[in-house]
Design goal:
Order of helices and strands of chain B: EEEHEEHEHHHEHEHEEHEEEEHH
Structural class of chain A: mainly alpha
Strand order of the largest sheet of chain A: 1-2
Shape of chain B: globular
Largest sheet of chain B: 6 strands, mixed
Radius of gyration of chain A: 20 Å
Strand content of chain A: under 5%
Order of helices and strands of chain A: HHHHHHHHHEEHH
Strand content of chain B: 25-35%
Oligomer: heterodimer
Largest interface: A-B, 33 and 37 residues
Largest sheet of chain A: 2 strands, antiparallel
Distance between the termini of chain A: 61 Å
Helix content of chain B: 25-40%
Structural class of chain B: alpha/beta
């Protein structure tokens, strides 16, 4: 028998498709360049006079978020867009578009793992060369909040950017849409963190709406040594960003979900929305 | 050899794209074997194949494939498990090798066992004679090789229903003959949409002619050819009264027309019969092509 006609587990196929896309992701030049730069910058931060600059956060969040997360948005948009190139053919296969989209989303674990690797290197580096600037977080932040912030602004940023790229790719599969979305993401994250850092706005905690936060408030923008922690819950913000990741997956899938699958994904989207809103409220009120 | 048990039935199918009526009350049946689908550009062949490939939904009518209606999602999936489809134009995802793309398509056709899947991928790549370049990136392949790769994905799993939209476009004569060999060896219902009447003559026992969204002929290839008996002749000079005429390789003029106006009558080909049926002059044919 050379043909498979038996019903194969959707989960098995999802895993196999995800493996194909993960491999495509892992070999994408932009991802490899971003990872190499993030690793190099993190290592350089650790080795190069680590106690000097209190404004630096090392590889803790910026490098991973930008070089892996934001560039990852462009990478995953491209993978999604080019996967859809075979659109004249793909709908005639028994595997649904929902499964194919989920496989692309699952491939976004590659940049998340890469961001986790960079974070691990940064942490190991700090154990060897403890930088003084880290104390502002370590001393004043509860451990759970510190871990939540570290993970949220690296690993989740490394996941969320690429997931957003898949969603954008499913809705706007033309060249340049990924880059435009990346610019908008940088603007949103930058605006959020600027609002969060500016003392005059800090009381409103509006900056916590941003998907990525440095978690420092600067009473005096000139003297960064006076930096204090942003008020609010970093754990809540982590939950918020996880909810945003869920919404990105939902936005990617719902585009082509039909029938019963659409109903299921509408419910899942509602759950992701509740998680995101609850997390944001927790971050703001916590 | 054709079995007369119908394996696909298209009944009263209509499809509209805004103001354009692509298909109008199309009805025919297919059995095991190769059926040719002829028609000029814009006749609705690709739309018909896309409907049969379960990609498009007809506005009206019924499509039953391999004993299943394609109205419900569950039945559509069952049909897709047994379907091979070659679209007229296919863009490829970036970054895949020839082997990688066919492997990806095999996963999408639910080949979950890696060993068996890879053996099947090698089989279909071998069938289209691309083994030597299977490790190459698709973008490094020539147009003809890409076309053969597209054919290869349609052959995955030895489908029971094979829908091929212009499979020989861009293939050299050797590869066209190879494709004929592959298709003629399959125990499947094959619908072959093409402009190449010689492919239909070489492969098909039945033919459907589609024109302006309607079936204008359905029957044996020999029956269509027979409609041109006595309407084809050779002469030393061109005769403008013929529907179509052109200078053949032997220096004489081949004429096709309703009325035989002189010269030596010759046996018609499928192309003659097709021209006659459409009432198309060679000049018009060049425009539509």
């Amino acid at each position: 028998m050379t043909t498979t006609t038996s019903q194969v587990s959707e989960r098995t196929l999802l895993a196999q498709l995800a493996r194909v896309h993960a491999w495509r992701y892992a070999r994408h030049p932009l991802f490899l360049i971003g990872l190499a730069l993030a690793m190099a910058a993190t290592t350089w931060d650790i080795v190069d006079d680590p106690n000097l600059d209190s404004s630096r956060d090392g590889g803790l969040n910026f490098y991973s978020a930008f070089l892996i997360g934001v560039l990852g948005l462009i990478v995953s948009h491209r993978l999604t867009r080019t996967e859809g190139k075979a659109v004249a053919l793909l709908p005639s296969t028994p595997v649904s578009q929902t499964t194919r989209t989920l496989a692309l989303c699952a491939a976004c674990l590659v940049p998340a793992l890469a961001a986790a690797l960079v974070l691990t290197v940064a942490m190991l580096g700090w154990l060897i060369f403890p930088p003084s600037y880290l104390q502002v977080w370590v001393d004043a932040m509860p451990t759970a909040d510190f871990v939540a912030w570290a993970v949220g602004s690296t690993v989740i940023a490394g996941l969320g950017g690429p997931l957003l790229g898949v969603a954008v790719g499913r809705w706007w599969g033309f060249p340049g849409a990924g880059a435009a979305a990346a610019v908008l993401t940088v603007v949103a994250a930058g605006a959020g963190t600027m609002v969060a850092m500016t003392a005059s706005f800090a009381a409103s905690r509006a900056g916590l709406v941003g998907p990525w936060i440095v978690w420092l408030e600067l009473p005096d923008i000139v003297d960064v040594s006076n930096a204090v922690l942003v008020r609010g819950s970093a754990v809540g913000h982590l939950v918020y960003t996880i909810g945003l990741c869920g919404l990105a997956v939902w936005a990617a899938v719902i585009r082509d979900a039909e029938g019963a699958a659409r109903s299921v994904w509408m419910r899942r989207g509602a759950i992701a929305m509740v998680v995101a809103v609850d997390g944001l409220l927790w971050a703001i009120l916590g | 050899m054709t079995s007369h048990e119908p394996t696909a039935a298209v009944t009263g199918v209509g499809k509209r794209f805004r103001r354009t009526r692509a298909l109008d009350d199309v009805t025919f049946q297919l059995s095991t074997g190769v059926t040719g689908l002829l028609g000029p550009n814009g006749a609705g062949k690709t739309t018909l194949l896309r409907i049969m490939a379960t990609i498009l939904t007809p506005d009206e009518g019924e499509v039953s494939l391999l004993g299943r209606s394609v109205r419900t999602a569950g039945q559509r999936t069952e049909v897709r498990r047994r379907l091979g489809y070659l679209p007229q134009e296919l863009d490829y995802p970036r970054g895949f090798t020839a082997f990688g793309f066919i492997d990806y398509m095999a996963i999408l056709k639910e080949w979950d066992d890696r060993t068996g899947r890879h053996a099947e991928v090698r089989r279909v790549i071998e069938a289209v004679q691309l083994t030597d370049v299977s490790a190459k990136k698709i973008r490094a392949l020539s147009g003809g090789m890409r076309r053969r790769l597209a054919v290869a994905q349609a052959l995955i799993g030895t489908p029971k229903l094979l829908l091929l939209d212009e499979p020989t476009t861009g293939l050299d004569p050797e590869q066209r003959v190879n494709l004929r060999r592959v298709l003629s060896g399959m125990d499947a219902t094959i619908l072959l949409s093409t402009h190449q009447t010689e492919d239909v003559e070489a492969l098909c026992d039945r033919v459907i002619v589609l024109d302006q969204g309607q079936v204008t002929f359905e029957g044996a290839v020999a029956d269509l050819v027979a409609t041109a008996e006595g309407s084809v002749w050779m002469a030393d000079e061109p005769d403008p009264r013929a529907l179509a005429h052109w200078k053949a390789g032997n220096g004489r003029y081949r004429h096709v027309g309703r009325e035989h106006v002189g010269g030596e009558q010759v046996a018609p080909t499928l192309e003659d019969a097709y021209l006659l049926m459409r009432g198309t002059t060679v000049d018009e044919l060049e425009v539509t092509r």
